[in-house]
Amino acid sequence: MHVNIDARGGQHCETTALAVLLRHQGLDLSEPMLFGLGSGLSFVYWDSKSLGFPFLGGRVKPFELTRNLAARLGLELLVQETTSARKAWQNVVGPLDAGHPVGLQLDSFHLEYFGSQVHFGGHVVAMYGYDDRNAFLVDTEQQGGAVSTSLTSLAQARAARGPMTAKHRSFTVTVPENRPPAHEQLVPAITACAEAFLDPPIANLGHRGIEKTGKVVRTWLQRTDNPQQDLPQAALLMEKAGTGGALFRNLYRDFLAECTELVDSEHLRCGHRLYAEAATLWTEVATLITKAGESGDEHWLVQASTLLGDLARVEREAMRALCRIGE
């Protein structure tokens, strides 16, 4: 059983899955546009005793982007969750048999095609078919685009419990005929994202989180028994783990570039210039963290700390400009 889809993989899992579902409905938006309309950009510094090493996140929490995007574009988003594996399977087979691809949130650890076996409960894929053994999915470009995994592994991935997991979450989207044009939603999407970033509820988020990271990054060699593994791994997650590079800043830079062609605003052009600068700086930070881990030399972290201080300032300035584009 296969639904006929356009199976292009993107850079980031949630926007890749959304693109598959929306293209099937006749709405073809670029991946940066989906990310930006979903007000996807954020920052979180996450550390706790249960974590082996601090985690830097560059986007809003899993599935928030999908909910934001659906609200902005007036999409009908049907989300189903259940603790029953049998019911969960019916929730997927129903739409597929009716000719519609389905989005799934699951733990990537159990997917057989996945490049690295790490637990990530916020992973999202689009499912477009199945037979008596395998499920046919669309994942990011780097995970192979159109891929398959056994039905057993899919069931394990969907049933997993832990940080960021959802209970067998599946979802479909319907694009209504009289929805508002996407370009009318650009300004509200950008300003909502900027306001959240500038006024975070806790110091680990938004521009305050970047500033905090700048202070604590200097201690990262002492934070682990295995810096040669943990620091390069942290840097790799910033650049390669479905972020589109530069901790999602490349995606947001490209979204703002698309917007400059649709909205005439000096504040928008300023925000775009600053996010282009931020994207470059984030990639430099990742390089410095890798060098620190490989060499055990703290001076690379001191440099990273300085750049993170600059980043907090650059992104704060960018978001202040972007807040004003509706004026």
UniProtKB/TrEMBL annotation:
Provide the Butirosin biosynthesis protein H N-terminal domain boundaries: 12-140
Question: Which InterPro entries does the annotation name?
Answer: BtrH_N, DUF4872
Annotated ranges, domain DUF4872: 153-322
One Pfam family in the UniProt entry: BtrH_N
UniProt feature coiled coil, ranges: none
Query: What's the protein called, per UniProt?
Result: Butirosin biosynthesis protein H, N-terminal
Q: What is the lineage of its organism?
A: Bacteria, Bacillati, Actinomycetota, Actinomycetes, Pseudonocardiales
